[in-house]
Amino acid sequence: MTAKSNMNHKQRTVSSKPRKAAKPSSKAGPKSKFRRRLAYLFRTFIVLFLLGVAWIIYVQWKVQVAPDQVLPKQVDVGIVLGASLRQDIPSPGLQERLDLAVNLYKQGKFKTLIVSGGLDHNGSKLTEAEGMRNYLVQKGLPAKSILIEPRATSTYENLLFSKQIMDEQGLVSSIIVTHSYHGSRSLDIAETVGLKEPLVSSIDSKVLFMPYHEARETLAYTKWIWDKLLLKVSV
Fold first, then answer.
1. pLDDT beyond 70 at 28
2. Up-side HSE of residue 137: CA atoms within 13 Å toward CB?
3. How many beta carbons lie within 10 A of that of residue 213, not counting itself?
């Protein structure tokens, strides 16, 4: 009985060793899973961060490089994209766009203009389009050559509503007048709304604080790409 008891005791002692060794591994399991998950999340964050940086670089390249297009001798209409008024007078930045439109008109690039822009929420009593028309008339352009589009509140609406006017008037070819930083997005929107082979004539601003406007355009361009995808899905 004593020998069997000793043997059973030894067997129990031997068999109990793996159980004791298994305890540390069971504790290390959750920690190991946590580390793996943390590493996965970190890698995902790095990938998303790099994609975000790449996108910003791409959009800034689009913002910095305005569409390089040769303007024809003449088109049907020039479309001047609106910006803010100040006490019912075009802001200095908007005046730059309008002055470019005046120069193109005097060069004979078009005989009809569409000025596009709705009512600002800054106390203005006139829509952007009305203020733009008044400015152009003061610069010597005949009022009958200027069509106003007074509803738009975005670049997309500027061009969509301007196209509706063009369709009503039987106008087909166009030159879009805006700032250089705004040119690429404007051209893409124009093509999306269905303007036939639209052209862009743009100007570098001497009065706008460009770091702000270029950063804002990055966000606006990103939003436009998203809106464009939604438009395609809804069709």
1. no
2. 13
3. 17
By C-alpha distance, which of 207, 154, 151 is closest to 179?
Answer: 207
Structure tokens at 169: 């008037």
- Residue 178, both tokens: 């805006």
Do residues 113 and 143 make contact, with C-beta atoms less than 8 angstroms apart?
Answer: no
Q: Count Cβ atoms below 10 Å from residue 149 Cβ, excluding itself.
A: 26
> Could you tell me the pLDDT band of residue 17, with boundaries at 50, 70 and 90?
low
**pLDDT greater at residue 189 or residue 33:** 189
**Identity of residue 157:** E
Q: What is the DSSP string of 162-182?
A: HHHHHHHHT---EEEEEEHHH
* Contacts within 8 Å (CB) and 24+ apart, 160-163: 160/193, 161/116, 162/79, 162/114, 162/116, 163/193, 163/194, 163/195
